[in-house]
Design brief:
Layout (H helix, E strand, L loop, with lengths): L2 E5 H10 L1 E5 L2 E4 L1 E6 L9 H7 L5 E3 L3 H14 L5 E6 L3 H4 L1 H10 L4 E7 L33 E4 L6 H12 L7 E7 H5 L1 E5 L6 E4 L7 H13 L3 E5 L2 H5 L2 H10 L4 E3 L14 E4 L6 H9 L2 E5 L5 H4 L11 E6 L2 H4 L5 E4 L2 H15 L5 H21 L10 H11 L5 E4 L4 H8 L8 E3 L8 H12 L5 E6 H6 L3 H7 L4 E7 L4 H9 L27 H7 L3 E5 L2 H13 L4 E6 L24 H14 L7
Parallel strand pairs: 2-11, 4-5, 4-6, 6-7, 7-9, 8-9, 12-13, 12-15, 13-14, 15-16, 16-17, 18-19, 18-20, 20-21, 21-23, 22-23
Antiparallel strand pairs: 1-10, 2-3
Helix pairs in contact: 3-5, 3-18, 8-14, 10-14, 11-15, 16-17, 16-23
């Protein structure tokens, strides 16, 4: 057997560089590069190996959590067909990965984490940053990553790569099992050499299959769809990952099926497609939520049916409602007692359409007319909500509408937590798949700028437009510098409302007063009720080297956006919005428990409303 002598770190990179992915006849390298911040634990092992090779590009990050967000956004933009790796030191760098790893696993997105670890030999221990646990010598801070990883391993001997890495790649390339994969690398083992089989470094092609459910289940699902009087399709992120948008549109058109979008599924149908009712659930449209309340059959395509989508299981009110779950993950396919279609969305939707067309779907003229009327009424409501503001500051809805009008089909808008995702889900008119990029499975503040960087790395054409609130910007904006370093132009709009606005509004809706959510100085009362904290976000961004400006009106915003598109580097535009001019919810409720005992009359009233709404929650069969 021919062998190659390499250190464990060199062998790891050689193996990653040889991995390829193939789907529908297209083949390309699986790994797009390695993000990293070096410290003791990875600088002399993986750092040395990265320095002497030229197959995997190294990207310098500013924050370990941020680099995971960037890697995840890169994978999402590539529909889970390409992956980034992230390396850190053994201490705080490793634990900083946890938040990003949780987001990756919750959102079913692949990322390879390579944190340094303490000495496997234990000879110099305890080393700097080592966790000394009283119950085990085998625990390190990297064990924090176990519950947020879909696969976790520690390489205590260099030859263990031979069995660990193929398993890691199996999970990374599995559409059903993917998420964060962690391979912890003790710093002494990284530098140890081993005679690896030369075949370990030969190109390996991971073929992404398109499995179909059993024919009997397909026929039953088609029968239910044809017989339903009030069917509804929920469009989830699985449509994007499967590249199934054309099959979805064809099924909805030929089967005369209305559709509603989750955050991850938004844009899979163009906003003006005849079947599209808009967003569904807590942040959804009036049209989609009213139809959902009446639906007698729900086809769930590539969604995990979170509480925001189902309005905490209060949205579907027909007592006989049935569900069909189309998903590669069996655990998601059976939710709400659904008829499970465990298969690829693209292949399965095409098969369902074929059977429906062959057998003919029953006409539903009254239901179709109701969907048309509700859709038209919702479009008029969006126009009203996004109209010019009444006060001196524009509303957030009006600002989003102006950015939406500026955005071209090949552009990608990136956002995450806060008040904007709710408004975007209702108001943004996505004209093409891939234009709408929201991280809302984990709703992670700080994702926006890092995620925008990952999208820009993955895109071949069009601009990346990042929408971020002032709260998220203050949490994590260092990747602006990385965008300049890599000559990746972002167009960033910072919404300045001097608050954690989403939770401020939630607090007020539950009878409280927005306690602890506004950006205020501590006042004479001892509370955070003094003057607002004045932050010049444009000056902050300019200090990093970005182009930046503050704007005060919608017209100024439009001018600034046009300048940003013509610029040679990242531009940050800050605009103050009216925090009191908000977009309401429409026919959906979110279960957030209210204090059962309170001296506040407003809280007691909110508790009464809460108990009334909770009675609508139901267990689906």
């Amino acid at each position: 057997m021919q062998t190659v002598r390499r250190t464990m770190a060199q062998a790891l990179l050689g193996f990653l560089a040889a991995q390829r992915v193939r789907r529908d006849g297209r083949e390309f390298p699986l790994f797009g590069g390695v993000f990293g911040i070096f410290g003791h634990g990875n600088v002399a092992g993986l750092g040395q190996a990265l320095e002497e090779q030229n197959e995997l590009r190294f990207y310098q990050a500013r924050n370990e959590q941020a680099m995971v967000h960037t890697a995840v956004a890169y994978a999402k933009q590539h529909r889970r067909l390409r992956v980034m790796a992230c390396t850190t030191s053994i201490g705080p760098g490793a634990t900083n990965l946890c938040t990003g790893a949780a987001g990756a696993t919750i959102n079913r997105l692949p990322v390879l984490l390579l944190p340094g670890d303490v000495f496997a030999s234990r000879r110099p221990g305890p080393v700097l940053q080592q966790l000394e646990h009283p119950n085990s010598q085998d625990l390190s801070v990297n064990d924090c990553l176990r519950p947020v990883s879909k696969y976790w391993d520690r390489i205590n001997r260099p030859e263990q790569l031979l069995t660990s890495l193929p398993e890691a790649l199996r999970v990374l390339t599995s559409p059903a099992e993917t998420g964060a994969v962690t391979v912890a690398l003790p710093q002494d083992v990284q530098a140890e050499a081993f005679d690896y089989p030369a075949s370990f470094f030969e190109p390996r092609v991971h073929r992404i299959p398109r499995p179909l459910p059993e024919e009997e289940l397909l026929v039953e699902a088609a029968r239910l769809l044809a017989a339903a009087k009030r069917p509804l399709v929920i469009v989830g992120g699985g449509v994007w990952y499967s590249e199934a948008e054309e099959e979805l549109a064809a099924l909805c058109t030929d089967g005369v099926l209305p559709a509603a979008e989750t955050q991850a599924g938004k844009g899979m149908l163009a906003w003006d497609h005849g079947a599209n009712l808009g967003g569904l659930g807590v942040t959804g449209s009036a049209a989609a939520n009213l139809i959902a309340a009446e639906a007698d059959l729900v086809l769930c395509v590539g969604t995990r049916l979170s509480d925001f989508t189902t309005a905490s299981k209060t949205l579907f009110q027909d007592p006989e409602v049935r569900f069909i779950g189309l998903n590669l993950d069996p655990a998601d396919a059976v939710k709400h007692g659904a008829l499970p279609l465990c298969g690829d969305a693209k292949a399965t939707l095409a098969a369902l359409r074929r059977i429906l067309v062959e057998n003919g779907a029953a006409p539903r003229p009254d239901y179709q007319l109701r969907c048309v009327e509700l859709r038209a009424a919702w479009r008029a409501e969006v126009d009203r909500l996004t109209a010019a503001s009444r006060g001196p500051r524009p509303s957030q809805a009006a600002v989003l509408s102006a950015i939406n009008a500026f955005t071209q089909p090949e552009d990608t808008m990136v956002c995450a937590a806060g008040s904007m995702p709710g408004d975007l889900h209702k108001l943004w008119r996505a004209s093409a798949p891939g234009q709408y990029h929201l991280e809302y499975g984990y709703s992670c503040m700080g994702y926006e700028l890092a995620g925008g960087l990952g999208v820009a790395l993955a895109k071949e054409q069009g601009d990346t437009i990042v929408l971020v609130g002032d709260g998220s910007y203050l949490m994590m904006h260092g990747e602006l510098l990385t965008s300049l370093q890599e000559h990746l132009r972002l167009i960033v709009v910072v919404m300045v409302n001097q608050a954690f606005a989403s939770i401020d509004a939630l607090s007020r809706g539950l009878g409280s007063a927005g306690f602890g959510n506004r950006f205020r100085q501590r006042g004479p009362s001892g509370q955070l009720d003094g003057p607002p904290l004045a932050v010049d976000f444009a000056a902050n961004a300019a200090s990093l080297g970005c182009l930046a400006e503050n704007v005060g009106s919608l017209e100024d915003l439009r001018v600034a956006l046009a300048k940003a598109r013509a610029a040679d580097r990242t531009t940050v535009i800050a605009i103050e919005t009216d925090p009191l001019h908000t977009v309401p919810g429409f026919h959906a409720w979110w279960d957030v428990p209210v204090a059962e005992v309170s001296s506040s009359e407003a809280v007691r009233a909110a508790r009464t409303r809460y108990e009334q709404q909770r009675e609508k929650e139901r267990w689906y069969r």
